Amino acid sequence: MTTRDLLLALVVIVVWGLNFVVIMTGLNHMPPLLMGALRFMLVVFPAILFIRKPQVPWRWLLAYGLTISLGQFAFLFSAMAVGMPAGLASMVLQSQAFFTLLFAALFIGERVRSPNLVGLVVAAVGLTLIGMQVDRVMTLAGFALTICAASMWALGNVVTRRIGKVDLVGLVVWGNLVPPLPFLALSWWLEGPVAIRAALDGFNLQSALVLMYLAFGATLLGYSIWGRLLSRYPASQVAPFSLLVPVVGLTSASVLLGDRLGLWQLIGALLVMLGLLINVCGGWVVGRWRKVPVGV
To answer: CA torsion 110→245→56→156, rounded to 10°?
Structure first.
């Protein structure tokens, strides 16, 4: 990987890692479902006027928008609104890697290899340790909703794999035509017109900056760079960078929001990271080990 592309990869990791602190900041000014609606409106308009629709049937764009956009962020924003700390959210959300393994095996027949299973078990132990600490620095509802967000992200990954090779930015923009109206309907139903009106009346510069970061930084900039890297390098070379997202998420939440992990939560977070590392790199390590000559 060239120095320039390495720096671009690190930019994406920092942007995505800081995303959780920005979400928490936004929730101080807007209810979660309304924030989701406004975010995806900005993702779509005006970008859709300049980005060509990918050669993807509408049913797959619908499936993408309902899972990886509406489902993931409706659950994630709600989780953080009801007591899931930003740093832990960035870590627990990475369980999507293992849900992706399970859903891909179930729905499209992908093979699960032994390193994947080992990584899954290790990360499951870590998530169990984190989950056992509810009511200390997080709520059970927040933890459960974050797991739901991870499962929806995983379903979206399976949809993306089913779609195949496609312009990722085009998929993000056109697929996100789907979530704004459902987000608005859910906000009206669950949060109510009074909360919506109060958020819009109190809309200020900080609210605008939050939405701009989520739409233009974390979504359009992040996915455009990530798609470029995936088009130039093997996925096995690009994917390990995503392991740094929860590191940035935990660090930034600690520095900017004062989040602190207890001992068992820290151990759980390290086990989740270890499980992700085994899942991403375990197959490569096994392959290299098998190529080592035996004897003289």
So the answer is: 50
pLDDT, mean of each 10-residue run, the chain (296 residues): 88 94 96 97 93 93 95 97 92 86 85 82 84 75 94 91 86 94 97 95 95 95 86 74 84 88 80 82 52 40
- CA–CA separation, 130 and 281 (whole Å): 24
Contact call for residues 145 and 82 (beta carbons, < 8 A): yes
Q: Distance between CA 136 and CA 108 in Å, rounded? A: 39
Q: State how far the alpha carbon of 5 is from the alpha carbons of 2, 12, 228, in Å.
A: 5, 11, 9
Q: How many CB atoms lie within 10 A of CB 33?
A: 26
The total of other beta-carbon atoms located within 10 Å of residue 254's CB is 16
What does pTM read for this prediction? 0.89
Asked if 272 and 95 count as a contact pair (C-beta separation under 8 A), the reply is yes
The string of DSSP letters for 200-265 reads HHT--HHHHHHHHIIIIIIIIIHHHHHHHHHHHS-HHHHGGGGGHHHHHHHHHIIIII-----HHH
Nearest CA to 77 out of 165, 9, 145 is that of 145
Task: Show Cβ contacts of residue 71 under 8 Å, excluding neighbours closer than 6 positions.
Answer: 148, 149, 152, 153, 155, 156
Residue 283: which of 164, 121, 123, 117 has the closest Cα? 117
The burial of 71, by beta-carbon neighbours within 10 Å (0-12 exposed, 13-18 middle, 19 or more buried), is given as: buried
CA distance 162 to 156: 10
∠ CA 194-200-206, rounded to 5°: 135
